[in-house]
Records
---
Amino acid sequence: MALLEGKVALVTGAAGSIGSETALALAEQGARVVLTDLRAPELLAVTERLKSQGHDVVCKAGDITNEDDIRAVADFAAETFGGVDILDNNAGATGFSSRDLDIPDMPVELWDQVQSINARGPMLFCKYAIPSMLARGGGSIVNISSGQSLSGDVSNFAYAASKAAVNALTRHLATAYSPKGVRVNAIAAGLIIQPGMEQRLPAHIQDIFLSHCLVPRLGTPRDIANMVVFLASDLSSYVTGQILSVDGGFTAHLPSVADMRPIIDGMRKAPGQWS
Ligand SMILES: NC(=O)c1ccc[n+]([C@@H]2O[C@H](COP(=O)([O-])OP(=O)(O)OC[C@H]3O[C@@H](n4cnc5c(N)ncnc54)[C@H](O)[C@@H]3O)[C@@H](O)[C@H]2O)c1
């Protein structure tokens, strides 16, 4: 039997690369899925594609920075499928990197917009999904965070801070609601590239990431979708309050490893010699 038969999932940012793949992966496991996103035409296109593959999916567009829109999406899920068992808080402020470069130059509107999409939005979806989950006997919330919330970096200040807020929200909600049957976890995603889109990332940037990934490839949307399916299903019934890295081991080791690897390899060949 499929892992999510009889469950209703709500996926935000479902027109995007990870969200659309996650909606598909949840539907493949038997979930009925409500897809939502700001970009209505792209959202409709993804929904129609999943429907044409035989999946029981519906969509409603909305802006995650607008509480009325979020309430409307939650109401739509209740009217269409009776409520929500799984919430994948995946929508994200992914288009701000070129301006999110430093704090002395930070436009405060940019900071507020990123927090509003990445932290306030997931909180509001939790606000409307949790009562439905409690009424249905439990549920699972999966928040899509980022490795940038776990370590320092030289850019993406607003983004990193917003994802760190999501991590704290995850642990607090897990603490409050797991005893009542609602598990809450986050995925700290590494660099994820849609297959076929690798050429959009310059080769030398890809090489930097690959030199630090213990699994020697870049991540794909399916890597994240598979973890969402696991966290949404009863396979993870003893997992809650966790920030789980899905990054090919990018954050699992000392930062010096990529530089030290050839030196230690040289020392294995010539013991006692620094190469
Ligand atoms: N791709 C990566 O390398 C990576 C790494 C770490 C974390 N993440 C996180 O994964 C999630 C999905 O990212 P992605 O790579 O699929 O990016 P994406 O840009 O393809 O998808 C993000 C989606 O969020 C939607 N969105 C943005 N603002 C919105 C708003 N105001 N209201 C409603 N929807 C809105 C966009 O329309 C888009 O479809 C994000 O939370 C992102 O921060 C991605």
Note: The first strand starts at residue 8 and ends at 12.
---
Amino acid sequence: MTLSATIEEIKAYQKEMEKGEVKPDSLPPCPRCHVESNHFKIHAYRERRFLIIIKMLVQTIHCPLTRFACPGCGKTVTFYPDFAIPHKHYTRKTIMHFAESYVGSDATYEKALVCEKSVPGYPDGQKTLDSSTIHRWVTTLSRMSNTLRKALSMISQESPKTTIFRDLAQWIVPPGKYRGEDRRVRLHNCFQLLATEALFKILFGLSIFTKLAINCAFT
Ligand SMILES: [Zn+2]
């Protein structure tokens, strides 16, 4: 089981980028002036720090991400490769894994952190990931309602007979996981995003963040 993107995946992406093979074509049109994304130009490369988990230890790796600019209005947007989530250092696999491990089961936050009988830690041996980290990731994912809505709309166009809407509506948040209505809604939204991402990857072969992060990443 891999708990994060691997060094190899990140290095392979960096190579693609250096060869100019990362294209803006899979992005949606500019939300401001509607220029098609294949006209976007490379604007800059931003060095980013990623945290990956190797043999249960958190390691740092740097990789630049491409920013494209819309030639119509000059807006810039970050292209998020498969392993990245907007504004997060941990990779998509890690965040999705632990959010799913908590939301998709009866586990407490502490239990959800345990993989193969241990909890990922830092190389200095001082700290491990803690339960507040999962709590935060669940909150982050639950707030991506714009991305979720667009992903669901693409799914229903691609696969009109999809049962995803029924499946999402029928899912009930385990009552032991929340005290207030606010948190129940957050957990429900997070579950929706996780389930939608799984189906989206099957249908489109891409993470919703690669395809739709433009909606939450325009600055
Ligand atoms: Zn534009």
Note: The longest helix spans residues 181-204.
